[in-house]
Amino acid sequence: MSERFQVDLSGMVDLLSRHLYSGPQVYLRELIQNAVDAVTARAALDPAAPSTIRLRTGSDAAGAATLEVADTGVGLTADEATELLATIGRSSKRDSVLGAGRAEFIGQFGIGMLAAFMVAEQIEFTSRSAKPGAVPIRWEGRADGTFDVTELAHTDAEIPVGTTVRLTARRDAAHWLANETVLELAREYGSLLPFDVAMLVPVDGGTDVWRRITEPELPWRIAYPSGSARSRALAEYCERTFGFTPLGHIDLDLPVAGVSGVAFILPQAVTPGSGQHRVYMKRMLLSSRSDRVLPEWSFFTRAVIDSDTLSPTASREQLHDDEILLGVREALGEQVKRWALDTLRQPSQLARKVLETHHLALRALALTDSAMLSLVSEVLPFETSDGPMTLAAVAEQGELVYTSTTEAFHRVAAVARAQGLVVVNAGYVYDADLLAKLAALPGWRVRELSSADLVQVLGMPGIEREMAAAGALSTARGVLAEADCDAILRSFEPESVPAVLLRDSEGEHRRDLDRERSEAPDLWDGLLDSFAGDTHVRTRTLVLNDRSPVARRLLAAPGGEIFDAGLRSLYLSAVMLAGEGLRSAESAALSDSLGVLLGAALESPSPSTELPNSDS
Ligand SMILES: Nc1ncnc2c1ncn2[C@@H]1O[C@H](COP(=O)(O)OP(=O)(O)OP(=O)(O)O)[C@@H](O)[C@H]1O
């Protein structure tokens, strides 16, 4: 003879609460959802039937907390109660006979009732089925896995069609049935349900009043006299729901997939990857922190989405990651992009605020889409050596040259500016990738700055100056070799910058020198050799500025301790100017060099600092 599996109820409840649900609070969602499904099933049989759900907390004779959820739904006969309520995994909503119109139901797994045992010692159903002539019944189930069903001899008026589920709290879970907790949870899960759901709550003066939990219509579907009235109402809804006043909103609508909603634009910048959207399934909250319904780059919004078609996981707290979800995510992402393309190109206060606040998100978005990339190039200001400019404006002037690190940008910005060369700082997150993508678009000439670019724009000093400084430069190269740094002389604006440091990791400078040497007349050979004699390719080059009085004075000074200290000071301030920061040995070297310079200056005070002779 074949036997049936035995199920240990407390083991099942433990399994659900620890491994399936995020916590005991979901018990209320399951109860409300069963009531909603029952009301939906009755409406399918009789569209004129009442459809209300009422919640009421209290306590029993022994003082244990209780909660009643009463619905005017389809109800249960004694046989159905025995079969459906006491069989784990059995659901009327998958049944071809009982589940007429089943696509309308939220429940489907037949395990939701078990969630009530996470907080209840006992669950009691008092129900009258909508079937003609049905006798009211009471089903009592206990946490130890036992249950009773009794038929009641009550009149229709005493027990109308529908079901009242009454939970008696477990001693350690009474707080889950407290009035304010139930009210908060009911609002969280059920506020968008298309039914009249109300709860009895105490008000000042000791009386109880029925408070409606549900909003009359999906907030984004309500008709308003004007667009601005609608925007205001949606902003208020956002404040109630998310606790922030949005910069604006984006309507989301995918009728083919039964998906609609609204994405609110956050008033502050947020870090990428923090998608926390509210997802409703047939208008019952599924998740308040979903990152699946919109693409990752839409982290500058918080969306509220309702769906008829997406599938929940069994915990009903996540979306099933299937093809439909993938399609919905992509299509909703397209709607966000379309909004950005339409709104941000036109100058408006909203466009300005969104660009200012969410430029990072827009950069992330531009990486995924070439239309967005060209939008970003037209509207987002980037840091350039000529102040903030859009990439399109930079490109208008010719080739777009950029540095891929902020350090490199700082190293060259002042000098580039003075030579009229516009350099874009692409050192911030996403920017170098953006420029690389832009380079692949037709009509764009984009290139990373090489030190050859700068060496080219820095003017050569006159031949006499080269000759005069050759010895000092050679000494300087000897001193800087300790820092793996080369030294050259150029003449450039601004004269207030005595020296700049170029990073030359790929040896561009070396190639540059080779090229110059091959093109130079004989007269230059010796000079250039004095730079290039050492075959070791230095990683950096200190470019001394022949227009700077400081650099000129140094090059005119005799070699020795003071020359070395002056050169090291120039080198280390160029390192700092490049935004590299000093290592501890370098700080010590700077301090030593300044000590030498100060010492020399104090030992031989210049005539101008001498006090005037009192006799004269
Ligand atoms: N308020 C109610 N009115 C009428 N029938 C109910 C009610 N609550 C539960 N039932 C019946 O009990 C069955 C089991 O409910 P349960 O919540 O365990 O599963 P479900 O709602 O079918 O699926 P899910 O696990 O997805 O919630 C339901 O299918 C339904 O037939």
Automatic annotation (TrEMBL):
This is Molecular chaperone. ATP binds at E30, N34, D71, T163. Keywords: ATP-binding, Chaperone, Nucleotide-binding. The lineage of its organism: Bacteria, Bacillati, Actinomycetota, Actinomycetes, Micrococcales. InterPro entries: HATPase_C_sf (IPR036890), Hsp90_fam (IPR001404), Hsp90_N (IPR020575), Ribosomal_Su5_D2-typ_SF (IPR020568). Belongs to the heat shock protein 90 family. PANTHER family: HEAT SHOCK PROTEIN 90 FAMILY MEMBER. The keyword Nucleotide-binding applies. Pfam families: HATPase_c_3, HSP90. GO terms for molecular function: ATP binding; ATP hydrolysis activity; ATP-dependent protein folding chaperone; unfolded protein binding. It comes from the Bacteria. The keyword Nucleotide-binding applies.
